[in-house]
Amino acid sequence: MSWIRAARAMISEDLDAAMLRDPAAQSRADLAVNSPGLHAIWIHRAAHRLWLNPAARPAARILSTIARALTGVEIHPGAQIGRRFFIDHGMGVVIGATAVVGDDVMLYHGVTLGGRSLARGTKRHPTVGDRVTIGAGARVLGDIEIGDDVQIGANSVVVKSVPAGAVATGIPAQVRMPGSPGEDPYEALFAEPALFI
């Protein structure tokens, strides 16, 4: 029964992360019942466990399809998602089969972590580092690396790797480093309006 304790701990951790990131959340119970982003990641975690067993892959795909129908979030069961992951609002998020997402990542609605290649059996989707925020409607495409602590602005299209600590905004995304060490993220919003999410 240690897997039950581990699952409870992960759910608790996800709820804590959501409480920190969602100013509209009333309580952990409110989030547990009403957050489609959390429901999607919890179902994904179960589907991913199934995916690791080749014989259970059809069941994993069915579970991910049910999650998409219930939440509006499509996460391929092969995608690797880190701890304390949160999707705010959820609707329209797509995460591809070979995507790798680090810890403490936050996505807003309409984000795509997608591929740019039709080649089978290869890594086609992004690798996203820890503590990354990706704004509403952003598209992060291809086998690229998004470094730790990156911020990607709303509706940006990112097709090249982004170094740790950078800000990426626009179509195609332009990358800049924060103006000064320890730049206040709230103040950065006024310097980079595309970061408003």
From TrEMBL:
Pathway: Amino-acid biosynthesis; L-cysteine biosynthesis; L-cysteine from L-serine: step 1/2. It is an enzyme of class 2 (transferase). Pfam families: Hexapep. Its EC number is 2.3.1.30. It catalyses: L-serine + acetyl-CoA = O-acetyl-L-serine + CoA. It comes from the Bacteria. Belongs to the transferase hexapeptide repeat family. This is Serine acetyltransferase. It comes from Ornithinibacter aureus. The lineage of its organism: Bacteria, Bacillati, Actinomycetota, Actinomycetes, Micrococcales. The gene is cysE.
